[in-house]
Amino acid sequence: MTLLTAEGPRSSVEPMTTASVLPPPPPTASSGEPRPAAAAGAPALTPRVRIASPGRVAAAAAHLIALGVIGPTVFTALFGLLGVGFGLLFALLFGVVLLAGLVYALFALAWFERARVDGLYDIGLAPLRPRRSPRTGFVGVLHTVWLQATDPVQWRAVASFAIATILGLVAVSAAGAVAWGIALAVSPVFGWSNTRLFGIFPFDGALVPIAGVLTTVVALAVVIGAALLHGLIVRTLFVPSREAQLEEAARTSDTRREGAVRAAEVERTRIERDLHDGVQPRLVSIGMTLGLAQTKIDDDPEAAKALVAEAHASTKSAITELRQLARGIHASVLDDRGLDAALSALASRSHIPVTLDVRLPRRCTRAAEAAVYFALAEALTNAAKHSRATGCRVHVRVRDDGTLWAKVEDDGLGGARVVPGGGLDGIVNRVTAAGGTARIDSPQGGPTTVEVSVPCAS
Fold this sequence. Notes:
Blueprint (H helix, E strand, L loop, with lengths): L1 E5 L47 H34 L6 H28 L15 H13 L2 H35 L9 E2 L3 E2 L4 H32 L3 H55 L4 H29 L2 H6 L1 H10 L5 E6 L6 H20 L6 E7 L4 E8 L12 H11 L3 E5 L7 E7 L3
Parallel strand pairs: 4-5
Antiparallel strand pairs: 1-4, 2-3, 5-6, 6-8, 7-8
Helix pairs in contact: 1-2, 1-4, 1-5, 2-4, 4-5, 6-7, 6-11, 9-10, 10-11
């Protein structure tokens, strides 16, 4: 873990143009779909879900019986909240608060259902996360609630819970019939008399244990059938078909390829501009200075020495610029010592104070670390050159879902705008090429936040 504040001389790096709120690339596993296996290249296909193993059938039956007991109470409370919310909608807008609470109650229910299904069938579902609006203020709050209320992933989970509750009511009734059938089958042992089938039809003698056994078998079949049906419905709701997975994999590969091509084009343009505007004129100046010194070396040795000294100083500056340019192409410290040390070196060269909070329990792939490193470098450059910020905070974590997450927040003026080929465009392209997502939030007045997430094994 690194936690430091650094301030010191900074090398010149390609300036990053500020940009407005930028929509992220197509959703990844964190948006609620099954997590692909961590591997380079296109996302792996989700394995088939086994729902017919005896252990999972028994566990599913237990889940359904439990949901048959608690599910009706949950939906009664939710419908009650819905009714009260609409009833008080025009009473000082108190109903709006209740309806917003209903949305997040449904989110909590969906989160529970996804966790329950994932624990039962081991599908590999990513944890459901609340949606956020890129807008700010009261409009942003309303937009956030609307995004959450219309989240299809949430509603699929709620539908799964509702169907499981209905199947649970059937399973509870069948479980009661199993208990009654067993009692009926053993009733002759205890000398019970006046037995009535379903409490209506009286019968006795040998029919009693036979009816008990048949009732038990049929009721058990109903419970098992409900458990199997639950597995089929869950697979339909949460696991996309193979064709859909292949289409999504193709779209993801296309997006990553386009991001890689654009990132390479932006990087090439930056290198050409740095060479043309920086190193090349300096080398030309060195050549002219040395030529002038050559003409004066016989007539005015002192002036020639001064010119040579000037050329020597310019040569050292050119070497420094070339080193900085090479560092912008490839940070060797990133390979040698990892992202933590590379970011510490980056913060030490910043024009403004940078507070680093890096907590990395393990190394990620080189592609993931490089994408995050260069994204943070561009963001810090933007803060130093364009935002008039007095400080930056950088947070880096490896999340539970296996993504490398980083956020840069400055206290500058904000008001960013998208410029194709600029620094923010480069961030998005590079992160997209690594299979991740980028979110840039820069309202007028600040602060500006750059948040990136890249699969650790991208």
